[in-house]
Amino acid sequence: MTRNGTRSKRRRSLAWGNGGIGLRVAALVGWLMSGCSLCWEQKELLARSDVSAIQNGLDLYFTKTGKYPATASGLKPLLDEQILERTMDPWGNEYIYLNAGSSLVVTSLGADGEPGGEGAAADISAAMPKR
């Protein structure tokens, strides 16, 4: 403690930030206790970002090899070429890849891992034309 008790006040101020840190901790605990209602929205956003990255990876694979992977091989060739690091969606399911006709389709089956669904269970899918 220094003169006039300033150190004690400073420690108290840094420890709780005049309520700032304490309020942040309380808000975080409350959010975690609420069942993490935003988690599925964050996972959906990540899945959409992953689908876009996979599409970019498919373009890069085409540039390197002159062809797109076959549906039967899935996204494994992109892992083999070290274009992608993973092929799992945020819910732990494999992304589905379809090389169909004139387009390529990448799909996440959402939280339930089943086709269709609503809300967190809704599929996230994007098609892109072949070059």
Characterise this structure:
With 131 residues, the protein is an alpha+beta fold. It has 2 domains: 31 residues; 91 residues, Glycoprotein, Type 4 Pilin. The chain has 4 helices and 3 strands, in the order H-H-H-H-E-E-E. A 3-stranded antiparallel beta sheet has the order 1-2-3. The longest helix is centred in the middle third of the chain and has 27 residues. The chain is globular and about 40 Å long. The termini are far apart. About 8% of the residues have low confidence.
Give the termini distance in whole angstroms: 72 Å
Structural class designation: alpha+beta
Subunit arrangement of the protein: single chain
* Cα-based radius of gyration, to the nearest Å: 23 Å
Major β-sheet profile? 3 strands, antiparallel
The CATH superfamily title of the largest domain: Glycoprotein, Type 4 Pilin
CATH class of the largest domain: Alpha Beta
Throw out a few tags for this protein.
Glycoprotein, Type 4 Pilin; single chain; three-stranded antiparallel β-sheet; alpha+beta; 2 domains; 4 helices; 131 residues
Strand and helix layout:
Blueprint lengths: L5 H11 L3 H14 L5 H27 L10 H5 L15 E5 L2 E6 L15 E6 L2
Antiparallel strand pairs: 1-2, 2-3
In short:
This protein is 44% helix and 13% strand.
